[in-house]
Design brief:
With 245 residues, the chain is α/β, with parallel strands linked by helices. The chain has a single domain, classed as HUPs (Rossmann fold), CATH 3.40.50. It has 8 helices and 6 strands; from the N terminus they run αβαβαβαααβββαα. The radius of gyration is 17 Å and the shape is globular. The structure holds iron/sulfur cluster (SF4). The site of iron/sulfur cluster (SF4) has 13 residues, from helix 6.
Length: 245
């Protein structure tokens, strides 16, 4: 099932989405929504199918603008967006022991695992396939992302899971051309220098010529900038480096 990352053989994002929606029942496939790419996918998917399942991770640490943006997308496309939240007891325990900003001291993995990965894992256990906005040129950890892959981080031999990345071969410029041409809603933080937007304490605006993910976990090295949503990118990219978006 897993393809190789090959721009020459990439299909159009719409063709990939059409294929995905024809293979999986509407209640078994969902779009993971957080960034600009994901709204492009929602825009394309809304033109292909009537029943669209969309979820978003609310870590409790998002920018106010992001919460407003989620509601804007919900209203613009008339789609239900399932907002996934972390287990409050696990968050309480971590914060009680280590405070609200432990990620600056000992890395983002533990906090991301509680606030993102566990809610995501529960959701993915109800699906056969999920659709993401990953692109190969987003970071050094994503250069080998194919359009279609077995998700080895969240799937198992008994319960395989497919991860579909229709925009794998698109550049940031193509994404933004689509957003402008089709008047797709986008997070207003993008107009203030934020290129890749995550949680408020772990995201900052980037300067001219900085890489688009340079503003994510800026205190950590580039090869570790995955939060675990796409953990297989770490293994593929750097066999010797353990990383967890
Ligand atoms: S991005 Fe930062 S605040 Fe958000 S879950 Fe990860 S470590 Fe925690």
């Amino acid at each position: 099932m897993t393809q190789t990352a090959d721009s020459a053989n990439d299909r159009s994002p719409q063709a990939v989405l059409e294929d995905a929606f024809s293979r999986f029942a509407p209640d078994r496939i969902a779009i993971s929504f957080s960034g600009a790419e994901d709204v492009v996918l929602i825009d394309m998917a809304a033109q292909l199918v009537d029943e669209l399942q969309v979820f978003s991770l609310d870590t409790g640490r998002l920018h106010p603008e992001t919460y407003t943006f989620i509601e804007q997308v919900r209203e613009h496309y008339g789609v239900d967006i399932e907002v996934l939240m972390p287990d409050p007891e696990e968050v309480n325990e971590m914060v009680r022991k280590k405070g609200l900003f432990s990620f600056y001291r000992d890395g983002h993995q533990e906090c991301c695992a509680i606030r993102k990965i566990q809610p995501l894992r529960k959701k993915l256990a109800t699906l056969d396939a999920w659709i993401t906005g990953q692109r190969r040129d987003q970071s050094v950890t994503r250069t080998e992302v194919p359009q279609w892959q077995d998700d080895q981080a969240f799937g198992t031999a008994e319960r395989p899971l497919v991860k579909v990345n229709p925009l794998a071969g698109w550049s940031s410029a193509q994404v933004w051309q689509y957003i402008r041409n089709e008047q797709v809603p986008y997070n207003p933080l993008h107009d203030r220098g934020f290129l890749s937007i995550g949680c408020e304490p772990c995201t900052r605006a980037v300067g001219p010529h900085e890489h688009e993910r340079a503003g994510r976990w800026w205190w950590e090295e580039a090869t570790r900038k995955e939060c675990g949503l796409h953990a297989e990118n770490l293994a593929a990219e750097t066999q010797s480096v353990r990383i967890i978006e």
